[in-house]
Design brief:
Layout (H helix, E strand, L loop, with lengths): L9 E7 H11 L6 H18 L3 E9 L9 H6 L3 E4 L8 H16 L3 E7 L6 H9 L3 E6 L6 H7 L4 E3 L6 H29 L3 H6 L42 H21 L5 E3 H11 L5 H13 L3 E6 L6 E6 L4 H6 L8
Parallel strand pairs: 1-2, 1-4, 2-3, 4-5, 5-6
Antiparallel strand pairs: 7-9, 8-9
């Protein structure tokens, strides 16, 4: 029997429960009654599908439910959602793999199912979604825009995406956003208080000659930080950086912080100063960090950093092919703010 077209009135829903749960937990600063928000999303989704004439014959939710603060299996069962308990491992794709296996099994054994709805957003699901579409199935993705991979969204199309915010009551979204804003403000105030407590009197600093009157931008270089113990001295050549200017884009700042973190991890592993970061492997890491962006948007963040003089991307000769590397400008103000005391050449 050949598969039916997406005009079939029957649908299957596959919910990466942990994906939604931990986004709410992390993005909205650990709000109370987390499971209730996820259940509201699932319930509203099923209701909206019903209003569109789609009968959700199959609904599965995937998570290591024993690790969640409260057990939502009972509530999911009453909503008609079967739970798939996937034991937590160090590999984040354990639930992803089980979800993909089940979706493929449904596709091959239930030709009456014309629509597949995935409540998640990892880019790892792209091959599954492409395969379902090649089999003439309609595919929809639901999730919070910030947690949905830009590559996946580009592949599925904006018209097939359901924003999870629209699946929550307006008052619930307002409460979550208020909690996030209040917590961020409180954290920022605490950070400033700590900095003020650690900072010395500015007049005393100037009297000691720590900084010129105009600050670091007045033309005098900042004092070089002492070299790390056991760190190798960098080569004498000077990378070709663009003139330094502030990085105003928040996403580009995230990309810069991630670059510096990868340098630190590599240095800790090799026990020496690392001057360059291979571009190709780094872009794969950046895809997991900036999942909400598409591939070309992530590359655009590096272009912004390069144009601001924070990094340089250089070619290196290699076998069998040349390769590109990222070099950091440790004299750049934004780099100094993220890694105070670091100086190129130490």
């Amino acid at each position: 029997m050949s598969p039916k077209s997406p005009a079939s009135p029957y649908a299957a829903i596959f919910i990466d429960f942990e994906n939604i749960y931990y986004f709410l937990k992390n993005h909205f600063q650990d709000p109370p009654e987390l499971n209730d928000y996820v259940l509201d999303i699932v319930g509203t989704l099923r209701k909206q599908l019903h209003e569109k004439g789609l009968d959700s014959l199959i609904s599965y939710a995937y998570a290591d439910f024993e690790r969640l603060a409260t057990a939502p299996q009972g509530a999911l069962y009453l909503m008609g959602v079967s739970t798939r308990n996937v034991l937590g491992t160090d590999h984040k794709n354990a639930a992803d793999m089980q979800l993909c296996i089940d979706a493929l099994e449904v596709m091959y054994t239930r030709p009456d199912i014309g629509t597949f709805i995935l409540v998640a957003g990892d880019r790892d699901y792209i091959p599954l979604l492409q395969h379902l579409r090649r089999q003439a199935r309609q595919v929809l993705v639901a999730g919070f825009r910030e947690s949905v991979s830009g590559d996946l969204l580009q592949n599925i199309g904006a018209e097939n995406f359901l924003d999870a915010r629209d699946l929550l009551a307006a008052e619930s979204v307002a409460q979550l956003e208020k909690r996030r804003t209040d917590r961020q403000r409180s954290q920022e105030e605490s950070r400033r208080a700590r900095e003020q407590g650690l900072a010395g009197p500015p007049d005393a600093d100037r009297a000691k000659g720590a900084l010129p009157e105009g600050g670091p931008s007045a033309g005098t270089a900042r004092p070089a930080a002492p070299a790390r113990s056991g760190a190798a001295r960098l080569p004498d050549e000077v990378p070709d950086f663009a003139p330094s200017r502030p990085i105003a884009d928040a996403t580009a700042s995230r990309a810069l912080a991630f670059i510096l973190n990868e340098f630190q991890k590599l240095e800790a592993k090799q026990q020496r100063r690392v001057r360059e970061l291979w571009l190709g492997p780094f872009m794969r890491l950046l895809a997991d960090e900036l999942t909400e962006l598409t591939d070309y948007e992530r590359r655009d963040q590096l272009n912004k950093l390069r144009e601001a003089g924070a990094i340089s991307i250089e070619k290196r000769e290699g076998e069998p092919h040349p390769f590109s590397v990222i070099v950091v400008n440790y004299q750049h103000p934004d780099v100094q703010e993220l890694q105070p005391g670091e100086e190129e050449g130490n």
